[in-house]
Amino acid sequence: MMSGAKKQAANIDVRMFEDVSVLRRKWQAALRPGEVLARYEDVMLGSLGRLADHMMLLKRDHGAFAVSRTGRYAQKWLGDERWDIPIEALPPDCVTALTEAAGNAIANSRPYLATAHSMRDGMVRTYDVLALPTFSRWGGTLVGAYVNERGAQYNLLDAIFSTTDGGVIALSTIRDATSGPSDFQIVHHNQAVAKLLNLADRSLQWQRLSTFEHPLGSEVVIEQLKAAVAKNQGSQFEIESDDRNLQLGVTVFADILSLVISDVTPLKRREASFRLLFDSNPIPMWVFDLETMAFLKVNDAAVQHYGYARETFLQMKVHEIWPKDEWVSYTRLLQDIDKTCQSDRHWRHVKADGSEVCVLAYGRRLTLDHREGYLVAVVDITERRKAEARIAHMAHHDGLTDLANRALHQARLRDALEAGHALGERVAILCIDLDLFKNVNDSLGHHMGDHLLQKVADRLRSQVRGNDLAARLGGDEFAIMLAADTSPKEASDIAVRLIQALSVPYEIDGHQVVIGASIGIALSPGDGTSSEELMRNADMALYRAKQDGRGVHRFFEREMDHQAQQRREMETDLRRALAHGEFELHYQPVVDIASESISGFEALLRWRHPDKGMISPAEFIPVAEDIGLIGPLGEWVLREGCKEAANWPSEVRIAINLSPLQFRSRNLVQVVVSALANSGLPPKRLELEITESVFLAETEANIAILHQLRELGVSISLDDFGTGYSSLSYLRSFPFDKIKIDRSFVKDLAKRSDCVAIVRAISGLGRSLNITTTAEGVETTDQLDWLRAEGCNEVQGFLFSAARPAAEIEQLLLRFGAWESRAA
Ligand SMILES: Nc1nc2c(ncn2[C@@H]2O[C@@H]3COP(=O)(O)O[C@H]4[C@@H](O)[C@H](n5cnc6c(=O)[nH]c(N)nc65)O[C@@H]4COP(=O)(O)O[C@H]3[C@H]2O)c(=O)[nH]1
């Protein structure tokens, strides 16, 4: 069944449809053959009847239309009863429809039907506008326009409100006797209200709130509405209804109130989740106002981490947790901040106690309490950064002294050389080697050695400035790089200062330790332009400084390069010499002062180089020691010496020198046993000469080896006695059979009383300890007389003979007999 209104609307539509058809037919019928348009008189004049009320005549005037002649209905539609109205004077909705219809009709030379929507008193009406194009005998085109409302009007507000999810209620205020607001009555509402209030089945119309059993009728709501009416001012508040959060927005129109209800449950849940995530998050978080930079919200973790009380925090601005030197840069960063920010940089923050932390910050924009804010979560990476820095530091520094290590030193040197090259500035390298450090390490132990190195490092550190760098290259090798354009004079002054500083006695664990330093200097670009070359040359200069008696500094000279070359050659030649049989032994007689006879021979090694001739052991033994050849070479000497001595008269002994490095091989005893066994030489005819340096390293083990040798029946002599540091204590460490007085004391016997005193003391010592004393380097009879007078037991030296090849031994024995008869 159709409602009355709908039926009426349907009738109107049918009539309108008929009107449009009639007019179209009339226009078609008026079209004469050969003419494009129907004539005005044929269409518009006469026989329009009822339709005349709905008609308008449109003239074209200079391109724009004007309306002349309007029927009554058309006048109402236009809202204007005048004849001749310019089109721009009409309501815009009419203008749009008329222009569209008339324009298209003229363009197509056919009737054209357009639709117009008009808004009148909140009601929307739809009209059909039919334009009939005609031509007039008096010239020009005239358009007859028919207008009629198509269907039922409807209320736009109702239509809009019925399609929204938001609830809208109109309430009228009920006043009491004092004319104050006492209650409210629902006078109108849209469909969404019932759904929002979960009251689908109940009618709300005319419901009084005070009797309305629903949270909407609660006292709280009524009081809020009363207050709004009293103040004539809108308000907004929330209520809960069936697990839903409803937001009520009140607008006051005198005694009528509109209540807009929206469901804010999802929003509330989001807020609750945010609160939960924010408040109890272990990661420090805050929200700050993007405009004022003030903290709006901070979570517990932030309060704890930064050490500010929450109230203090909330009165602060973001920049107050930045270090002052970053205020400008960080403010600039925040100005460019995006909707979200993934921290790709480190931020420095300052805690309440003034300490600084390093953090990563992650953030996003949000609205909090109607303010544009920024939510920030921070991850403190201070410890991680420290650990990273520690690891990076460790990779570039020496663990013991904390000085730069070789890698960092090389890298910095390369950089300095590059910069120096660009600027035309010199870079100096000072290679430093500690004199006598090995002694300390060996005699006082590694622990003391380490302490000493640390103190050395401290002194070096205190001597370097600016871009200069002190480094430990390993062991007791250090280097200083002087990066600022350094002259040779400056480098030399610094080297002198360094040697002085390092030579001041060290106080370590109650011991006073004295060491020195030797320094080699190389300067770029003259002594090298690459780090490798410069270091190699500084090292060569250092080698020279050590050769020159230590405690001095030397600059690199091209000649050193030559010497280094020679040394390399010697190393190569030495490796070959043993296999090629280039070594031989010479023997120097040892004379017994009392019996004035040869008691033995000292075997002294000789190297007959195929090109260079005879090379002194003083030159090649240290090299053989350095390249590890001393083991096989020493073994060869022992075998060869014992074999030779086995041919001598039975009372003549042989003395053989042992390098301290031979003790390292651990098979020394075995080698001696084998040499004796192979030669058949009785052990008592073999003397092994050692220097006190045997006691400097692995003392216990070496003393044990000495005891084993002695148990074989071999004698042990202490060579070069008096030249070392603590010889007397070594005499206690091992029961030596012989002490050899160094030739430096013998040399000046006749001239220097201190030498006499030393020789006297050593001889006395030997006597009281029952140790034979042998004086070396006796060249004059004067010296011999002094030695005899001081009670020395044996002598050897050029006075009797230099070391001679084995073939001359027999002759020597004979010749000695001759000397013996001449001396008598
Ligand atoms: N000015 C002067 N010198 C005299 C006199 N009498 C002897 N000499 C020299 O003094 C050195 C004595 O040997 P050294 O103190 O054991 O000192 C030796 C010894 O430490 C080492 N050496 C020699 N042969 C061997 C060896 O077979 N093994 C080891 N490990 N070292 C050896 O080489 C050093 C030097 O040996 P050489 O050049 O042969 O030098 C020998 C000898 O030629 C003299 O009256 N005046």
The name of the CATH superfamily of the largest domain reads EAL domain
> How many distinct domains?
5
Count the beta strands. 36
Structural class: alpha+beta
Ligand list: ligand C2E
User: Strand share of the residues?
Assistant: 25-35%
Supply the CATH class of the largest domain. Alpha Beta
Throw out a few tags for this protein.
824 residues, alpha+beta, Beta-Lactamase, 5 domains, 8-stranded mixed sheet, elongated, binds ligand C2E
Explain what the structure shows.
The chain is of the alpha+beta class and 824 residues long. The chain has five domains: 151 residues, Beta-Lactamase, CATH 3.30.450.20; 100 residues, Beta-Lactamase, CATH 3.30.450.20; 118 residues, 2-Layer Sandwich (Beta-Lactamase), CATH 3.30.450; 164 residues, 2-Layer Sandwich (Alpha-Beta Plaits); 244 residues, EAL domain (TIM Barrel), CATH 3.20.20. Helices cover 40% and strands 27% of the residues. Strands 1, 2, 3, 4, 5, 6, 7 and 8 form an eight-stranded mixed beta sheet that branches. An eight-stranded mixed barrel has the order 27-28-30-31-32-33-34-35, surrounded by four helices. Strands 14, 15, 16, 17, 18 and 19 form a six-stranded antiparallel beta sheet that branches. It is elongated. The C terminus is likely disordered. Ligand C2E binds next to strand 28, helix 19, helix 20 and strand 32. This is EAL domain-containing protein. InterPro entries: Biofilm_reg_signaling, EAL_dom, EAL_sf, GGDEF_dom, Nucleotide_cyclase, PAS, PAS-like_dom_sf, Rev_trsase/Diguanyl_cyclase. GO terms for molecular function: cyclic-guanylate-specific phosphodiesterase activity. Pfam families: EAL (PF00563), GGDEF (PF00990), PAS_9 (PF13426).
